[in-house]
Specification:
CATH class of the largest domain: Mainly Alpha
Strand content: under 5%
Structural class: mainly alpha
Largest sheet: none
Number of helices: 8
Shape: elongated
CATH topology of the largest domain: 434 Repressor (Amino-terminal Domain)
Helix content: 55-70%
Oligomer: single chain
Order of helices and strands: HHHHHHHH
CATH superfamily of the largest domain: lambda repressor-like DNA-binding domains
Radius of gyration: 19 Å
CATH architecture of the largest domain: Orthogonal Bundle
Distance between the termini: 52 Å
Length: 138
Amino acid sequence: MDTNGRTAFGARLVQARKHAKLTQVQAAKGVQMAQGTLAQLEIGGKGSSYTVQLAELYGVSANWLASNKGKMISGGGGTPRSMTAQKLVSPKKNNDLENVIKLLTLFISATAQDKQHIMDAAEQIKHLRGDASNDETT
């Protein structure tokens, strides 16, 4: 237990969640866990079947989160998944979130060939709009 009465695992969970700038409620929703369960893990947890999912959500190394081995932020850049999602949808545009969800649902259910067609069409639209300067492949 640390000075706050938390287990070492619990303290790492809190540190990682704060790194991701998430509340317990947001984090629990992100991995489809009850907020009370996350609170219990942050106080007295010694491990969890959610460790890998939480590490991914928080943008930290699962190995570090589980065992305190290695670096907190691995070579992947350490961008919390929650931050990436926040950048995708502007809260000023209410329809954006609905459209992103619809598009992702269609994309997930598409065949590999259809996914490639969707990506090609998106690139063509991007180039037609004149956004080619933002294309990382050029």
